[in-house]
Amino acid sequence: MFGNACQDTTVKSLTRFGKGEGDGEFIELTLEHPGLDNAAWKLWKPGQFVMVRPESFGLDPLMGRPFSITSADEEQGISIFFQVMGQGTRKLASLKPGEPVTLWGPLGNAFAVRKDTPTLVLAGGIGIAPFYEYVKRHEQPENLRMIFGHRPPLACYNWERAQGVCSCEAHHETCRQDLMDFIALIEETVPQYCNDGLIIACGPLPFLETIKKVADQHGGRAQLSLENRMACGVGACLGCVCDHKTEGPVSVCARGPVFWSDEIEL
Ligand SMILES: Cc1cc2nc3c(=O)[nH]c(=O)nc-3n(C[C@H](O)[C@H](O)[C@H](O)COP(=O)(O)OP(=O)(O)OC[C@H]3O[C@@H](n4cnc5c(N)ncnc54)[C@H](O)[C@@H]3O)c2cc1C
Ligand code: FES
């Protein structure tokens, strides 16, 4: 869909948003914009992602790590919003301004935008990352409703960034009953958008499975962004495949990461 390039850049800033009990820290990492020589950066859209590999990875880990693009602007830089999960994100969390980073991107496809269509934006946890810019860019935000489910405190998510732009509801999950209530909300809301609305979602697999199940039951379709583990990010290693109903196994990095829910098996 878009061209992509591997470019060298540097860290501009890191902003820390804290961590929940037992959860890794949440950080916005901003890199210097590598410039618009690669025209794809001018055209990037929410849902697309980058592979990030700082020099400090050395040989461990060997491969870069994929992250949704939170924002990309030649003046402000390119930002990702991530949660510390393991060795790669731990090293990203210790970066300092000016350190060198290799960036591949923008990669993959993007969420659909239909300005006149009621659109349900479903975000689970760190799956909120692509949606800050999605809601900000939308030409008719009055058509958007964002529902955000999270376990760590809201303060971890830079939630203010989405506020005031469209209808936004955050649902904090602290116990099993909260989860059941959140699932009930999805079961009640998704069908309202199955006929002539648009549903877009990003979050953990069980969250996407619930959305797909409800959309399937009501003859609707949702766009789901899959976060399969990736190595190359460009369709070369087949490390990230998912089952496409008509095409068989397809690379999430090259064919996705956004798929219509009725096209794939989860
Ligand atoms: C297209 C795409 C967009 C993404 N966007 C974001 C984002 O915006 N913000 C963000 O925080 N994360 C995002 N992720 C997930 C992110 O890539 C992983 O958290 C990261 O690669 C973990 O690297 P690590 O070296 O710290 O962890 P590792 O040491 O590799 O693994 C640590 C733990 O995390 C688990 N893990 C690793 N990768 C994933 C994954 N993809 N899904 C679920 N569990 C995983 C491992 O199984 C292990 O338990 C995205 C993934 C994809 C494919
Ligand atoms: S990560 Fe290599 S094919 Fe997708």
From TrEMBL:
Necessary cofactors: FAD; [2Fe-2S] cluster
Superkingdom of the source species: Bacteria
Pfam family, one: DHODB_Fe-S_bind
Positions with a binding annotation for FAD: R65, P66, F67, S68, G88, T89
Alphabetically ordered keywords of this record: 2Fe-2S, Electron transport, FAD, Flavoprotein, Iron, Iron-sulfur, Metal-binding, Transport
Annotated SUPFAM superfamilies: Ferredoxin reductase-like, C-terminal NADP-linked domain, Riboflavin synthase domain-like
Family annotation (InterPro entries): Cyt_c3_hydrogenase_gsu (IPR012165), Dihydroorotate_DH_ele_sf (IPR037117), Dihydroorotate_DH_Fe-S-bd (IPR019480), FAD-bd_FR_type (IPR017927), FNR_nucleotide-bd (IPR039261), PyrK_electron_transfer (IPR050353), Riboflavin_synthase-like_b-brl (IPR017938)
Cofactor note: Binds 1 FAD per subunit. Binds 1 [2Fe-2S] cluster per subunit.
PROSITE patterns according to UniProt: FAD_FR (PS51384)
GO molecular function: 2 iron, 2 sulfur cluster binding; flavin adenine dinucleotide binding; metal ion binding; oxidoreductase activity
Binding site for [2Fe-2S] cluster: C232, C237, C240, C253
Residue ranges occupied by any FAD-binding FR-type domain in the UniProt entry: 4-113
GO biological process: pyrimidine nucleotide biosynthetic process
Family: Belongs to the PyrK family.
The protein, known as: Dihydroorotate dehydrogenase, electron transfer subunit
Species the sequence originates in: Desulfovibrio ferrophilus
